Batch of 2 targets.
Target 1
Amino acid sequence: MPLLTSHQVLDIRFPTSESLDGSDAMHTDPDYSAAYVILRTNQPGLEGHGLTFTCGRGTEIVAATADVLCRMLTGTSLDSITQDFAGWWRRLTSDSQLRWIGPEKGVIHLATAAVVNALWDLWAKVEAKPLWKLLADMPAEQLVSTIDFRYLADALTPAEALAILKANDPTRNEREAELHHTGFPAYTTSTGWLGYPDEKIIRLVREGIAAGWNHFKIKVGANLEDDRRRAALVRREIGPDRKLMVDANQIWDVPTAIDHIRALAEFNPWWVEEPTSPDDVVGHAAIAQAVAPIGIATGEMCQNRMIFKQLMQLDAIRFCQLDSCRLGGINECLAVMLLAKRFDIPVCPHAGGVGLCEHVNHLIMVDYIRIGASLENRVAEYVDHLHEHFEHPVVVRNARYLPPTAPGYSITMKSTSLRDYAFPQGPVWQRKLSP
Amino acid sequence: MPLLTSHQVLDIRFPTSESLDGSDAMHTDPDYSAAYVILRTNQPGLEGHGLTFTCGRGTEIVAATADVLCRMLTGTSLDSITQDFAGWWRRLTSDSQLRWIGPEKGVIHLATAAVVNALWDLWAKVEAKPLWKLLADMPAEQLVSTIDFRYLADALTPAEALAILKANDPTRNEREAELHHTGFPAYTTSTGWLGYPDEKIIRLVREGIAAGWNHFKIKVGANLEDDRRRAALVRREIGPDRKLMVDANQIWDVPTAIDHIRALAEFNPWWVEEPTSPDDVVGHAAIAQAVAPIGIATGEMCQNRMIFKQLMQLDAIRFCQLDSCRLGGINECLAVMLLAKRFDIPVCPHAGGVGLCEHVNHLIMVDYIRIGASLENRVAEYVDHLHEHFEHPVVVRNARYLPPTAPGYSITMKSTSLRDYAFPQGPVWQRKLSP
């Protein structure tokens, strides 16, 4: 049985700020990055890889934190972890001294995600299955046993989670077959970054329509006039039937959000994403009530299952955009997907960044096969960049994610990318940083 | 005018886990620690000192983060910061790349507190006033101008904040004089740490009563039988009129909290502190409604002003226990104190730890003189340890905090303590860590 013997944590950065890919109202010049974890074992060549997405500066802080967490695992057998995964997850997130600097939020939770995702990658590789298939085949009781239900009792108990899985079990093979055949619907954010000029947006939307995309998202929040012009422009290009989504990236306070969304209503947005602070559950509820039937979406910066629980309890979101690295890895993603099922809210995961599409590809398969079990109002984000750095990049065809086939969590980066983009010592950064 | 020329960040740890001082249901073995910031200037001997409290492991992560933030300040004049303090606060908390690893929560916000508090310490030293006096004398408009009101518009506007201050201005000198004369009421947590045996608690309670204390807090949450025994024991010792508070340190989920608090009701707790996750605003509201008239208190792990805003909007807390280092320094503490005034909730700050009593001493003076302007249901935490490491330790007499007199924010540690307790290179740790 594999034993965790050592680890390595890397700070990998891509200089995306040069082209303003990924620019939005709050993140004007991101260098898409990753704190990247490698868990080594006593079996030659058998490694678990995991990452958490970051935006450049600060990656070194998350990497240092992941290193601290990895040390808790050294000398442990993978078996002893997977047989008590909820217990280990609690140990990683609730260390009696470390929890003060979280708990379960921000830096330490991002680092937890990288480490926990590397454990799942390793487990799936040992089982010689892609991660989604490991979870698709797992007995319901075992899947529930991986989740730490702390603080969820007023919304979701283990028994309720088990009932959800059991109810879906008889039909899960049909949904798995369907995914192999037609994939899971995706939408694109590649068209509307805030830094792009109008002509570039028009060109990208037209290319997107030609490639079969039916959902288009644009960034808003710089100023109302620009936002209205860009929304009108995209709506004109996509026609009345395709979906337009807008994303404010937390730029507004609650009253401004309500005014601004009402001023965009004529362009018929399907959802408005991150209208205000991701911490403001009550604010999201107020906005949702004021702008209905326009749906409110959030999640990429929602720090843990407790925030999602409250967003659902207060009927504050119509779409749950959980983030595979903001939450503390697969175990907590499963908890949030189960919560969403309980509250009948579609899960439309956040992606883009570095490796998030690769992660999300597995999560949506698991959600459809075992938890949400519906495609209604489901659409997973897709951004077409940085996939070339992964050994098993995501496959999207006809605007649909196809099930991954390689064993693991699809997060292993090519060794050349790990070498070239290492910060600051890799050759790409040495060239950029040299005077 | 002082110019910020360089900085130093230290990792200072006290081996408090040896005696279980500070032990509670979630933090079973804390080593009370600090990420400690020194901002140096072009004026010899003029330095700003600030810290954020931590629990041992993880201090190095917060210290590394504070170092990143300090670098943003180098070369800036203190004047240019204090003349646009809200703007600088926003710059520190909203860096377009760094905010991804927060924003405004956990590691990065704890680090922000240390840096921002050091700036205020420096400003007060330049003005040759204790920090509370700098704020007591400041024109209302200037005080409001230090606050970043982002995400508060649905609960508190700058105009409303100004109106609160203006309404209190005519009587502020009376309250200041009163504080000099009689101080601000305190309560003690030194008696009831979870790791203490019953006999030690009895002895400490009796000593506390003899020293004039009227409020006693005990830790609960290990198991109901123990909690009932300890609550009964303390209630018997203090009699029916003194106040008993209990602190669960987030151990319960919502239904368990309700059951457990009801089972403690016969001992008449004045408040129950941290019944569940600090992130669960909706859960606190449910608990508060179920256990009234017992008051719910929380705050030491409430990550920012948005969480306090919601706790107040949902009527989820009867006592606001803001933490001077969990929030992003004085500027955000002022915002939360103003919110509390708007919602008529007493501010009873969290203290203890390392240096928190020294911080809190200033905050309660400012709150009474300029914002809350009442002593009703106000009581500030006091824990009698680690004060000997500070150059100007807090003075508590007859169970009341007295106004600090030395210029600054009272956070400068003795150079011998900074040397001896530096982790891991200080002699105290070298002795402990050597085999």
Target 2
Amino acid sequence: MPFKTGEQYRERLDRLQHNVWFRGEPVTGNITEHLAFRGLVSFQASLYDMQNDKAYQEKLTFTSEATGDLVGLSFLQPKTKKDLAKRREMMRLWADYHHGFLGRSPDYMNTSIMAFYSASDLLSELDPQYSDNLKKYFEYCREHDITLSHAFIQPQASRYVNINDGVEENLAAKVVDQNKDGIVVTGAFLMATQGVTAEEIFVFPPVSTLLPETDSPYTFVFAVPNNLPGLKFICRESLVQGDSAFDFPLSSKYEEMDTLVIFDQVLVPWDRVFLYGHEDLAHRFVIESGFHAHVSHQLLCKNIAKTEFLLGTIEYMVETSGMSNYPHVREKIAEIIVGLETLKSMLIAAEMNAKIDKFGSMVPSKNTILAANVLYPELYPRIIEIIQLLGGSSLVMIPSEKDFESDIAPYLNKYLKGMQSDAKEKVKLFRLAWEISAGSFGGRETLYERFFFGNKSSITSRLYEGYMGREKYIQKVKHFLQG
Amino acid sequence: MPFKTGEQYRERLDRLQHNVWFRGEPVTGNITEHLAFRGLVSFQASLYDMQNDKAYQEKLTFTSEATGDLVGLSFLQPKTKKDLAKRREMMRLWADYHHGFLGRSPDYMNTSIMAFYSASDLLSELDPQYSDNLKKYFEYCREHDITLSHAFIQPQASRYVNINDGVEENLAAKVVDQNKDGIVVTGAFLMATQGVTAEEIFVFPPVSTLLPETDSPYTFVFAVPNNLPGLKFICRESLVQGDSAFDFPLSSKYEEMDTLVIFDQVLVPWDRVFLYGHEDLAHRFVIESGFHAHVSHQLLCKNIAKTEFLLGTIEYMVETSGMSNYPHVREKIAEIIVGLETLKSMLIAAEMNAKIDKFGSMVPSKNTILAANVLYPELYPRIIEIIQLLGGSSLVMIPSEKDFESDIAPYLNKYLKGMQSDAKEKVKLFRLAWEISAGSFGGRETLYERFFFGNKSSITSRLYEGYMGREKYIQKVKHFLQG
Amino acid sequence: MPFKTGEQYRERLDRLQHNVWFRGEPVTGNITEHLAFRGLVSFQASLYDMQNDKAYQEKLTFTSEATGDLVGLSFLQPKTKKDLAKRREMMRLWADYHHGFLGRSPDYMNTSIMAFYSASDLLSELDPQYSDNLKKYFEYCREHDITLSHAFIQPQASRYVNINDGVEENLAAKVVDQNKDGIVVTGAFLMATQGVTAEEIFVFPPVSTLLPETDSPYTFVFAVPNNLPGLKFICRESLVQGDSAFDFPLSSKYEEMDTLVIFDQVLVPWDRVFLYGHEDLAHRFVIESGFHAHVSHQLLCKNIAKTEFLLGTIEYMVETSGMSNYPHVREKIAEIIVGLETLKSMLIAAEMNAKIDKFGSMVPSKNTILAANVLYPELYPRIIEIIQLLGGSSLVMIPSEKDFESDIAPYLNKYLKGMQSDAKEKVKLFRLAWEISAGSFGGRETLYERFFFGNKSSITSRLYEGYMGREKYIQKVKHFLQG
Amino acid sequence: MPFKTGEQYRERLDRLQHNVWFRGEPVTGNITEHLAFRGLVSFQASLYDMQNDKAYQEKLTFTSEATGDLVGLSFLQPKTKKDLAKRREMMRLWADYHHGFLGRSPDYMNTSIMAFYSASDLLSELDPQYSDNLKKYFEYCREHDITLSHAFIQPQASRYVNINDGVEENLAAKVVDQNKDGIVVTGAFLMATQGVTAEEIFVFPPVSTLLPETDSPYTFVFAVPNNLPGLKFICRESLVQGDSAFDFPLSSKYEEMDTLVIFDQVLVPWDRVFLYGHEDLAHRFVIESGFHAHVSHQLLCKNIAKTEFLLGTIEYMVETSGMSNYPHVREKIAEIIVGLETLKSMLIAAEMNAKIDKFGSMVPSKNTILAANVLYPELYPRIIEIIQLLGGSSLVMIPSEKDFESDIAPYLNKYLKGMQSDAKEKVKLFRLAWEISAGSFGGRETLYERFFFGNKSSITSRLYEGYMGREKYIQKVKHFLQG
């Protein structure tokens, strides 16, 4: 069976009937029709449809060796630099289509699971069955184009589980029982983005917070369908305020709902368990799989598309307002250009300096690509700040689509026109700028980018610890001083 | 007639029947009942009611010499440092009540018009009638506790009026005719905050953008009731999403609607015209009245209250999450403490170094108080950033009041509790933090604080140009170098 | 015996014959004539002479109750706000004279020892003799106008003494013996600023690094004359490059040598021991004495004088180069003005909010004054950066005094003149700007200001931990949320 | 004649007998023996010697088509990406040897003149003789391995020449006469770095400051030997304080003297004049030659080498002090790593996206390489700040080489040792860190890096104006909004 179309995506979602809670009520109707989800689902369906579009198919799919079917290219395990380039082209295509606003476009999780799959042999150290389970699950996802979400952050009060055992022990998700059919898991995860709009959920442990132990009920890697009994998805407030693309150009399309995922005595079947109980191996599994490098490759493609879109938005605002000759405007735009050129250069360099790992995967250079991860959580909020600084009060005083259809429209047309644009075009642009830089959709985006791969301490430590070259540079200085 | 009560405020608003447009429709019902305005109106009514509350009355009012009535203390022209202290106590009382979230609490415009009134003699240079008009209007406002909004920013495409006369001339607001009854004004103003929820509007020119001319149809100072024929208020999108104080702790109370004000052949009666046609005098009037210093005194009180509230919010978050021992947390909070202590010290110093001006007003030290204006547009966004950095993903995954009343509540109670608080309390706190730091109400607040008194170039020039002491410091260095 | 004159200062220094090492050689001649020290000594002598100058004497001295003599006002224990104001006037007078470039002008240590003296009763908890010793020593210093340095930072490799006892134990300064005459101390201290140009040295423990113990050989407070046997002062590189005030306007006057102080079996007489062995009391002694608040009061006076001088330098540069109309120049200067106004406001507020402590001292408000300590280590380097940014390459290409006396002078006079100054005046100014912002004297100043009161973590923790008001602000938010 | 050796470099310098002024005296002896120059000359000689070293020769030279001799590779006009790679390898080799501390290593000017040479045909528009002169001069430089300096900044008071003609006219360098032998130039240039230690000087106009005119005595491009009559080099203060590599590890080797160059009626022979009088062409010549891109390629190589060295220095300090586990330390080092990875990625990307220009040169991507130029003036000072923050007071208290040879040495050995190094090694390292981050050599370096390619406004405008892609990004947004 080949890649999925948009229509199939919608059908499977509605058929799923998973347990979703929204504003204190269980969602009973179709996910694809609910105001909070329909915009995103429609948009995501069009991503899947691109795979079926002759204009894009060659770049978006490859022929599965297992079945001869065309499958999504983000499932491809890269073994050469050319594979990396193919993956990048695929990911840029989708990212350019969603302009980087989907943090969880399907290639993200496809890449994650590909990374884990490529390291599945490592699991044999614990039990060959685990390795086998993961390989089969990966093939299942690839051949059925499964839409996945994932979960790994535990509720905050439980992150000190090893420090305050007494207090927190009952909060952290853990295996409360196991039997011949599988392990029984109880607990909660913050926050499965697109949990509602995916088919299955992949769960793996946070690498950095737990102490190495050989046997822990808190350590597991598994995947389950979203409609398994005992599984509940609790939505946060929806940021969708309407379907109008004029009034809500971003949230009407790109609002990826975050969910609190509850596991209440969920039985995870053994064939869906990929690792259980061995913290040290779980840790090595995440690190050695090249997970961070592979996923950061996808992330970098997304961030470049997003930065291009934001730069375009700002340049358009500047054009509309005739501000391009002010030195302070140029300095601010130059900052964004420097950021964009940095990201693009890093993408090139990460591929050029890629290395084959012990599993045969061609892994983008960690030195470079993890540096990009440190950069973006500060670059993105700065771009947002620049939009605010250049937009000023014009961002605030923006009427709606209906105003332009009313008797009051002539006044708007007269008084809100730009230097080089009519009022409606200008207002449309500034509504976009508002949503990015001051609306609640934009607020969530900023938080999301700040913490995508952890807080500053985590991402800098990840870069610092794995950094290749340190010793060479120290030797340079020692040699200089001896010399 | 004395100060106004909340009830009187509501009655007058509903009686006004001014021309208000909201989402493409004229507002026909009562302002005080409309979802977009009712929260703010109720809250503001309670501010007026405080004047009638024995616990506060002495601090909030003074006896009018004209009538013997108690009138609002923010109308008091300060003539001594003690008067300044009284004014400060009054303004802190209201600011502490609205926690600094009202940028246009009534004392703001009361203070503005008091500043202009105190310099009314200057207008006699042009025509003694203007001076007289302003004095009478001020007394009218003070004795009737009139709620004012104001307007002075012109639509952006028209700010180059003197540069591109041909293109823009028909955009800038101007006097299109005059007759025995008054001047006829056509044009638009961005953006009268609280235009809808005020009784009258005060219009004065932007000081910095126009070239000195002695006779200009673009230069005028006047005030009119909001329901004058030809006057229209067009609302931006409302940021009120509901009445629930749990879900929307800030926007349900403090959302001050901004409006585009249209003057379409509005006849402004002569007795409401305070200056017309003389740019140079208009400029001197704004500068020499001490307007910026007096209003900044009010502003500083507001900003201190807001900063205290934000610091409390952050400390509460830190308490709830048990993070107070991390050095990076302490460093971030220390930044806010330094900011708060700075504002408080400046308030003290500005009063202590106040000077009597030529009109007999005791004016807070400009050196200090205009420095505070430069500081806050950078301090406020940094505080917001710190909330984001300390809140992290906990800011995103916040359920609503209804979730806590539903069958799903037990899960929330279990998994979302804090280190020292139950889940509901913690979620309530984090909804507040969300609204400030990532929701659209907060987005507008950030824009508002960034540009309250103009862009960076304007506010730094205002400080730079009026700075006393420059020559002394240069002499110090010259003296040192001479040896 | 009353305050000291400059001449007495010089005589006592030369008579001292302490063991000073400079560039691998013991200094054998007079300190007051050595290139590395003579500039500073002459300048400091003039500070002492001001006490004898009728124009300043009233502000710089007060009548000792013990002797009826006039003694230095920085020895005055403040008991009223008026005392604080007197102290401030005294400290500003000296600071304005040295333009804030002396980090260790004598009032600094006079204030330190006054703070400790005022809390001497606390030492009676351990032994009344300690309290008595400190009182007598303080009186001795006050009545003889003793010039003190102090030492408390231990060499870096030993700061983990409690962690790596095995490795470091022999590095930390400690009492190696005690007998009827006193305690015998061996160890080293980084870095006694002005160690060479002081008469005595006061030693107290670093508050933050040691664990509470009741009996530790590492804990002591004492003072000794600089020429005690076994005491050695090792100088760092001198930053004095010549006596020319044209070429080296700052280093020729203000270079305060830092020294590594070696205690090699130094016998400290019992009457000079103020505390020994009790870590917890040592900790309380430093905290409860108000040491940080009193010393920060002096520091703030110094920092204001320095900031005024730097602002004057920059405004002079701007005047000379005709740059005052560029918005980016104004923004940068406005930053410094905001900083200066902040410091000045904090000085006023810290005195106005001062409180009497349990020892009867009037202590400046810690909330405010410790905030100023957090501010300056970031403000100062930013000012230096602004000098670099505004000075640009003009800072680099600066000839020397001799060039202006040579045949090449006409070219300099022609080509290096400023917009409003001749070449020699401009070069003189830019040599000053160079020394502050790029020369080695300035480099040491920047390091000094960054770390004056500890690293960022220490100074923010000091502010955070003692901050009054936290609970009130949290309550505000709780009250708001309850509704 | 082939490339030059170190010995030849020294010989030619001493033979030159150019007019050099140092501290008010003409330099009469050999440049190569003067304390202010000998360190740099020796070091630079060793760069030339590398060309004669079989280990490096292949990478540092190529065979001249004109003579069949081996000549310096930085003279190679790149026509393919492979040529760019060769040039980069050459430039990295030298940069790694001088660790980026030579801003004017010979490849810098070789690259500049190569860029101009490659566009020499453009000069034919004015006069074919100019084009011919430049070609011949370039060949002369290449075949004789001439060491060049250059000058283009005019004294600051003259930069407004077109605005304030009356005042400044006599200050700006200009052609005061012309005759059959050449043009006669009078004026001054700030600041020819390595003017003293070069053989010839290349002069071209500042691109950005002059108004387009077709005939201007202020516009010229020419080159002359340093010993032409009427040419004088006035040195700034020397930053060399001694020859000891222990005490002054950087300034003893890398101090590149800056000079004020005086032209007093200098006759420039016609065959050395490449352009005269035509401002518009001069402007196009600099822009269209790809000068900025080619030189930035060299600059980027230098900046990478420098950043690697600084990173090594910091990591070595961290190793020595055992600080690598502190989060704030890791965050700071991660910042530098991100900066380094950015520069390295940009170097790769600039070559990969290089394009052939109309003169047949392969030009590195301006989008990327001019972005690197905007980045470094902020990255470098931040690295310096990090050295200060991590070094703290340990940077200040550093003894000298002689101290370690004296009787006081045992104390130093005991008390100044590091966690993993002996005292002498640690002090050596910290003297290096001092010189970079606080000494006057480092101060000049910071100024140099901040302004290498102009102030912020210039370098951001250069990037902004030439940025390719702007329209594409705006179209993206327009398409999205229409969509």
